[in-house]
Design a protein that fits this description.
Largest sheet: 3 strands, antiparallel
Helix content: 55-70%
Low-confidence stretches: none
Strand content: 5-15%
Distance between the termini: 50 Å
Shape: elongated
Mean pLDDT: 88
Radius of gyration: 22 Å
Strand order of the largest sheet: 1-3-2
Number of helices: 7
Structural class: mainly alpha
Oligomer: single chain
Order of helices and strands: HEHHEEHHHH
Amino acid sequence: MYRELLLLGVLRHKQMHGYELHEFINRDLAFCTDIKKPTAYHLLQKMAEQGWITEIPETNAPTNRPPRTVYQLTPMGEAKFLDYLRQNLATYSPSYFNGDVGIAFIEALPPEESSNLLEQRKTMLQTALNTLNHHPNDEVHSKGGMSLIIEHQKRHLQAEIAWLDDVITLIRNQSHSK
């Protein structure tokens, strides 16, 4: 549902062709979704079949390539967007952290190696946090929901870094007490 909500929400602001839609998502929403181009096109086709969006052939396309399809939200799509939005805002979705799988088996490595590897992870998290802290404060990202998403990501990264600091300290203290 969240992917459909994403696509409908973007098209709600502006009709776009598929490539433009994908570029917008990659440029402006990459920190909150990882929707891939084939998935987006599949969902756009499905939403067109359901009447949520219309597919309009581009009329001013250059003659050296086939015309692109422009997607536009329909009134039925607007209603579905609002329905999905309400569901999404009212629903808890658990977060799963793929990196926790390695934590489950951390005892298989020597403590020194484990703590060094977690330091590497922490460095990557800090880099991601620094990137968000220097995110452009432009018209798109500084207002409303977009600024809330950026702040949510920042807080998640800060919490993850603090947690890793605690885990690294625990591992190193256990190693020294043996």
